[in-house]
Amino acid sequence: MQAIRSILVVIEPEHSESLALKRAKLIAGVTQAHLHLLVCDKKHDHAGMLGVLKAALLEDGYSVTTEQAWNDSLHETIVDVQQAEGCGLVVKQHFPDSPLKKALLTPADWKLLRYCPTPVLLVKTSKPWTGGVILAAIDVGNIDGEHRTLHASIIDHGYDIASLAKAHLHVISAHPSPMLSAADPTFQLKETIEASYREQCKAFQAEFDIDDDHLHIEEGPADVLIPYMAKKLGASVTVIGTVARTGLSGALIGNTAEVVLDALESDVLVLKPDTVMDHLEEIVTQH
Predict the structure, then answer these.
(1) Which CATH number fits domain 6-123: 3.30.530.20, 3.40.50.12370, 3.40.50.300, 3.40.50.970?
(2) Which pLDDT tens digit goes with each residue over 240-255?
(3) pTM of the model
(4) Any idea where the domains of the chain sit in the sequence?
(5) What's the topology of domain 133-286?
(6) CA 258 to each of CA 36, 224, 251: distance values in angstroms, whole numbers, following the listed order
(7) Whether pLDDT at 15 is above 90
(8) Which is the most buried residue in 3, 18, 144, 206, by most CB within 10 A?
C-alpha cells in the first residue's frame, strides 16, 4: 500500500458525505498518494461540486485532481480512468439498492471487482477504521505459487491498513471438515487437519509477526466463516483475494465470492495475483 502513488476515488454526486473519500483521505494521509476524484455521469455537470471538494482537500494539504467521465457503463468508465491516470487503488462506496437487496452487491460493483486490474476497496459501512480490527482472509489449503504470493499480498495489505489506522490485524483461514474416506490420514481427524494448517501458517506468522491469538484456523466453508469471523471480531475492513483468471467470475477462495462479499458487514479490499492483474491489463488495453 505504501507503493500506491495515486488513488481513484469514485464520487456519487447525490451522496456528498462520501465514505469513499473519507477512506481514501486516511490512506493518502499516510502514503502521500495523489487523489483523483471521479464522477461517472454523462448528463449533468458536477464541476461545481468537484471544485468545492478539491478546494477543501487542497487546503488540507492533499494532492488532488478531479474528472467527470462516462463510457458505456459504470465499471468501464472507472477502469478506463484508472488506466489513464495510472491509479494503484480504486475506492468506491457500495450503495444498497433497496432494503430487500440491502446486503447484495449491485451488478456494477461486481463488474468493477471482476475487471479492474488494480485492488478495489469497496466501502460498505461508516464504521471508523482507527483502532479497530482488520481481518485478512487466506486459504492456507492452497499452497501453489500463485496462492502463496497472493497470501503474502493479502497479509501485507492487511498489515498496511492496520498500521495506517492504528488497528489490529487478525488472519483467518477456513479448513475442510474431517473426511473418514480421505486417503491422507491427516484429513480424517479435526485435530490433525487444524495442526497441519497451523504448521503451514508458521512461515507467514514469523514473517509478519502474527501470534497465535491473532490467527484463526476454523473448520467449515469459507463463505460462512469469513463473514462470521468478521462480525465476531467487529472487523472494519476485510482483505480477501481472488485467483480467478478473469477476476471474480471463477473463484474467490473457492467460488465463494458472492456469498462472502454480500454477507460481509465491513469494508472489503479485494486483491488479485499479479498474473491476473497483467491479464486484465491486456484485456483493457485491447479495447
Answers:
(1) 3.40.50.12370
(2) 987 655 545 444 444 4
(3) 0.88
(4) 6-123, 133-286
(5) Rossmann fold (3.40.50)
(6) 28, 11, 10
(7) no
(8) 18
